[in-house]
């Protein structure tokens, strides 16, 4: 038997070798719904951070960044420290 005939059929698929449509479906399950994110200029920091999945490689960052913004509610606090005075 020719061993090269069987070597290509036994490769294990990875996330990056799946079709893009399937990867996007997986990302939507992984990222899922979340709590509203407060973006504040008042306190000097935000509660928002990039999802860990987007930090693994540039391809995943590019494919997941728009999903993160579509699936979250962003709350902007534009108060100034002078407003409390």
TrEMBL record:
Protein name: F-box domain-containing protein
Native source species: Aureobasidium pullulans
